[in-house]
Amino acid sequence: MRAAPIAFLPTCSPGYLTRQESIAVSGVDDLFIRSLLDKNQFHDPLDEALNLGISSATWPLFGLLWPSGMHMAERMARRPVTGERILEIGCGLALSSLVAHRRGAQITASDCHPLAHAFLDENTRINGLTPITYRHGLWGTAALRQDGLPVLTEAKDATVSGEFDLIVGSDILYERDDEGTLAQFIGEHAARSSEIWVIDPNRGNRAAFHKHMALAGFAMHEQVLDQAAHDGVEAYKGRMLTYTRH
User: Fold this and answer.
1) Which of 105, 111, 160 is nearest to 129 (CA)?
2) What is residue 62's three-state secondary structure?
3) What pLDDT is recorded for position 156?
4) Contact 36, 119 (CB under 8 A)
């Protein structure tokens, strides 16, 4: 999976800079992805992100392409297309959703960042695709605001609802989550017979997540995804976690 040379485009907001890349994912046509220029971008003039508990330091993370997301996109490119209902959680730039949508799968993308929907719409547009269903997806308690004021958790978009046959998420185990809020969120939206895919770049929080998923009735299979650097592709260390419930 490689990115072509970057084309810098006029920013879609006066507060941050973007770039556009052609991303090659084996099994599908190349996708054009507009992303933030780098992880130093920040623009939250109306405190929309702050009111959802998203700090200035974590604000840009949704708008970058991450290695785990690239690995998930490859998996989605190999998934047989059926009538199953698919949900991507913590989608960020939603590369996996774009891959699945281009192949004709029935997918809903979700995230809690206030700009995720706009970037998704733009990336579907520049690829000549019809709009992807987007929902606001937030699990657990939002982080405390830096100024000490109460955190608001309301968003412009409708929240995730219904049940799905396959739920996917890449690099979503970024905090310990002893209370199991992520597993609870997944359990609320997973069909009785369902499959969950999580790609984790060894952030050290798998044990607690395994425990809470087991309590929710899911069996787990773990696959090592480590690969050495090759042909311009950086080395990667991580795990593919597959949970099933029947």
Assistant:
1) 105
2) helix
3) 87
4) no
